[in-house]
Amino acid sequence: xxxxxxxxxxxxxxxxxxxxxxxxxxxxxxxxxxMLETINRTLGSTLAWVSVDDDTGLxxxxxxxxxxxxxxxxxxxxxxxxxxxxxxxxxxVYWKENIGRALFPSQHPGYSQLQSGVLCKLSSxxxxxxxxxxxxxxxxxxxxxxxxxxxxxxxEKLKDYLAEIVAREKTAQxxxxxxxxxxxxxxRAPVLMNAFDRHNRCVLWNAECxxxxxxxxxxxxxxxxxxxxxxxxxxxxxxxxxxxxxxPLKDMYEWYPVRKDxxxxxxLWSNILLxxxxxxxxxxxxxxxxxxxxxxxVKATTDDLTGCFNRSAILQQLKSALAVHSLxxxxxxxxxxxxxxxxxxxxxxxxxxxxxxAALVHFCDRIRELSPVDSAxxxxxxxxxxxxxxxxxxxAAMLLSARLRxxxxxxxxxxxxxxxxxSFSAGLVEVCHGQRDTSALLTxxxxxxxxxxxxxxxxxxxxxxxL
Length: 467
Known about the structure:
Blueprint: H1 2-10, H2 12-22, H3 32-43, E1 47-53, E2 59-65, H4 71-84, E3 92-95, H5 99-103, H6 110-113, E4 117-123, E5 129-136, H7 144-188, E6 192-196, E7 202-205, H8 207-213, H9 217-222, H10 227-230, H11 234-246, E8 253-255, E9 267-273, E10 279-285, H12 287-301, H13 311-325, E11 334-341, H14 344-351, H15 353-370, E12 376-379, E13 384-390, H16 394-410, E14 413-415, E15 418-420, E16 424-430, H17 438-454, E17 460-463
Parallel strand pairs: 16-17
Antiparallel strand pairs: 1-2, 1-5, 3-4, 4-5, 6-7, 6-10, 8-9, 9-10, 11-13, 11-16, 12-13, 14-15
Helix pairs in contact: 1-2, 2-7, 14-15, 15-16
């Protein structure tokens, strides 16, 4: 190898042949590292590097060869060399021996290994220096002018490609940076992003999916039908598959998948058809938001103290019940009981308002215990309540009223070590078929309640002639 190298760099004709062999191998399709390795292999050099200034003003160094060389070695070497030659015009300079000592610190292996070397400027189109090309050998060469000429020819060839190569590699780096950014965004985005192929295999599953659903992509991929994990119901699973594969949904729709721990979620999903005909699913977990909405809806219709419907909600319940009842057959039954807790003002005055509140809660709890599951109880005033009894006639409603009185007597309200037995008055109306006038119904129930209170309290008066 050394003999071949001597022939190349010490003989002009052989140098021309070497260049002729080398030139076709130097193409802009190669990377800088590949190009430098080709030069080393053809000329027998031990180290080759290129230092170029990019458009940000930073120096970029690319090295190749048997000797390890870092960018800081090149930077220090160039600074020292340029300082020594700052007053002289030069295009190329060579060292007959000990180039390793100029390039590396004494502890570096190349310090004593490298001998001859040549440094050549890379000029831009406006002849300004845009970088440097360097070759070094591990033996002393005697015909360095020939080597210098070889390098200068190489530089002419290289400078045609360098701009293109640097631009291409910079573009590749930028693309890699963008890909990395998007990958990071994909992984860290607080949005559910996944995709399943037409064989129901998971091909995309970001960190938010694993966080929300509890399954890793490996666990999903190991399942024969991953959608079964989220949608155990076959019919719901069929609709999901249809939305993904047959008719992708552009808008966002609510789905109710199951989490790994069995909890049902509420997810807003949208399906995006990609250019390769695959479908990307993007979702938002709105489970907590739905819970809050439901809590607010309950709060908007619930009496804070007793937990039954508030006035507006129970009146809406009554209106809806009347509308449904008017469409049913003439033999259907529907009753309304209006309660009023007896002597409630005295309870507040003698026992205090806290006990008064406890009395209202105790009263409602006993009503709920005795009422059918499809009934509706609401507070329409301070101590006044309305109970809607679907499918109940006046006899059954009177029986419920009697049982409530018995229950209040046998289960009194405990106040410390004392007991408080509650009583009530009530007005009962059995709704006739076809009646839809809410105000008239309430007036009749209120009148019956008033009659019960006027005639001694602790009783239930029935309106039997509601037309």
